[in-house]
Write a sequence for this structure.
């Protein structure tokens, strides 16, 4: 009986050790993901700052050259040109009449 108890204790210790190891691996993976997300966030912030800087440079160059802004909030669409369609006259014919002329 004591051998069974000893085996059960060993299995319990092994299961606990396995659980702790698994937990540590998950915690390490979670930290890796957090670090990756933080790095991506910093990259996004840097890209936004760069975009703002480029837009400011573009605006400065446009002002220096008296050029209109390429994209402003007031987008105006040019009206489409429709060629005048030829009007077809309806010439009524009597029922069943054929015009051979």
């Amino acid at each position: 009986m004591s051998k069974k108890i000893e085996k059960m204790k060993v299995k319990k210790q092994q299961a606990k050790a396995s659980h702790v190891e698994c937990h540590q691996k998950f915690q390490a993976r979670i930290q890796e993901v957090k670090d990756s997300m933080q790095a991506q966030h910093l990259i996004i912030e840097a890209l936004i700052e760069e975009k703002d800087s480029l837009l400011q440079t573009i605006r400065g160059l446009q002002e220096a050259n008296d050029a209109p802004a390429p994209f402003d909030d007031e987008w105006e669409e040019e009206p489409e040109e429709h060629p005048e369609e030829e009007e077809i006259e309806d010439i009524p014919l009597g029922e069943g009449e054929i015009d051979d002329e």
In short: The CA atoms of residues 60 and 90 lie 62 Å apart.
